Amino acid sequence: MCGIAGYYSTRPYDPVMLESMVETLHHRGPDSAGYYRSNPFHGGMRRLSINGLQTGDQPLYNADRSIVMFYNGEIYNYPEIRRRLETKGYLFRTGSDGEAITHLFNELGPRAFEELDGMYAIALWSETEKKLYLARDIPGEKPLYYCLRPNGELIFASELPAFRQFQGMDLTLNRQAIWDFPTFLWVPEPDTIYQHITILPRGHYMSYDGSKLEVHPIPNKFDHYKVEPGDEWQTLVDKTRAAVIAAVKSRLLADVPVGAFLSSGLDSSIVCTIAQKELGNLTTFSIGYHADATDPYEGHADESAEAAAYAEILGTTHHLIRVTGNDFKKALPLFCQRAGQPYAVSSGLGVMAVAQHARNAGIKTLLSGDGADELFGGYSWYRHLDHLALHTPGCAGQSVVSMHNKDRPADEIISAIASYDHPKRAWAWHYYAAEEEKRALFNRDAFSDALSSYRIFAQYKSTNDWSAMDYIRQDRRCYLPYEMMVKLDRMTMAHSVEGRAPLVAPHLLNLADGLSYRHMVKGGVLKPLLREAFADILPVSVTQRPKHGFRVPIDKWLNDDWHNLVQETFSNDSALNRSGFLSPQAAQLAQDMLTSRERIHGHTIFCFIMMNMWLSQNNP
């Protein structure tokens, strides 16, 4: 695990510039650093040692050193790949899982990426070809950004702040990204907050030789649990169990102690149960709020008592982290900094708090249950998708209606959403600021060319024939990688901890692709395959417990302890106002939105707070 950065350039080598780029990633790898230069390639890394503790420093090489690699991640089928290569005569110098990639590339070229079961961001230099290869894992767990400059220079890094150290970098802000941000709480990939910097799409690799840049998909060939025609229900239950167990076991590969998030919900309980059975000494962590902390979506926000009770049943070493609104408020500057660009998924504050506590407890690797909701059907609105898909979009009313209109009867909300076209329906299920709301908050002149954020959904499928599964697939392609995987990576790495998501293993993604809507919701029950697959090893209190997402009571805090942040953000001298981004009525409108009885607006306002903080940190 590490952070990588570098560039392809014919300019004279500048060791100070490269070191400055790499050092911005120190939190991703505090254990050691490594560098390599061979014009026109210059690269470096900061390492967090998880595997091959004594011999895994980078760069890593093939036998004749014609292939040089910097790498961020873990390859979980590394032992199998290593055995296969050794039978062909390849000799390994280190115990690092990453070294297998260099020899595999020597054997297969870019097809080597198809063999990797893991999370990774790779920068590989072929001295023979004088070509740079960048690659990113299939689920999108590890980030890798790049910029191709007009003069032919290509810069890459694990995080955006590294680009600020590259001399001559054009850091013009991407106003479309700013416009999209309050709708999603994040910037939709492949865009970034910077107009000229892009993230390499997940499950893709690119090559660059100084003149030609090519981007190619990496096929997901991990299909040994895929759904076959004629599979009966019990067969799918058995496949689900086997696939999940295989994923969790493989993600335990580490030469350091492993910990896990435990909320007492179905997903984290499954991961922790399997891991504890395999390891026997799992360390678990959960967040606890004060008794008066509630969120307007699901009521009481604290699940710590249930988590502690299940940890006792499992026999894990359990840590309960008690937090207050003031604790999270103090953490906001680091939260903003480590995200690298505007990011407002408030549950990431909890992830960051767990990572800090885990690091202090000597845990460098944390398992997460992320991904199960998208793959197996866990979100509450999925119950309505089949019925809603029967409705032909009609004429929407004047008011903005979404799942955030919690004071209205469910059937009234569903009826209103049914009047939207399909992309706007996808927005209404679980996203935030509507186009109408942004037009009122933003300065229209500054965003006159902005496109509707609903285009993000339209790109996945024709707007005319969406099925229930199309909405779920959209969540898998958008919400899962852009929100959940970003949150896990950035907020664990904020404290030099590696977050792992077993339930997005490539073979599980392939299994999920073959499932139908009836496998997502059965008799009104969500995630029925997953519940049945592990009913024999989980208590009824877990398998029959309604879903309760990990939520931060942000709406409550913005109306009391955090209210000064709202005032600062919408003040005349805020970074947002100095940039010309806010409308004249934004301050009053923000106050009205926070006290609205019609819609829940806390996260929309939180987006503006984080955007203001990001601008203050990066464009003072």
From TrEMBL:
Keywords attached to this entry: Amino-acid biosynthesis, Asparagine biosynthesis, ATP-binding, Glutamine amidotransferase, Ligase, Nucleotide-binding
InterPro entries documented for this protein: Asn_synth_AEB, Asn_synthase, ASN_synthetase/amidase, AsnB_N, GATase_2_dom, Ntn_hydrolases_N, Rossmann-like_a/b/a_fold
One GO cellular component term noted in the UniProt record for this chain: cytosol
A GO term, aspect molecular function: asparagine synthase (glutamine-hydrolyzing) activity
Family named by the database record: Belongs to the asparagine synthetase family.
NCBIfam families linked to this entry: asn_synth_AEB
Protein name per its UniProtKB record: asparagine synthase (glutamine-hydrolyzing)
UniProt organism field: Micavibrio aeruginosavorus
Gene: asnB
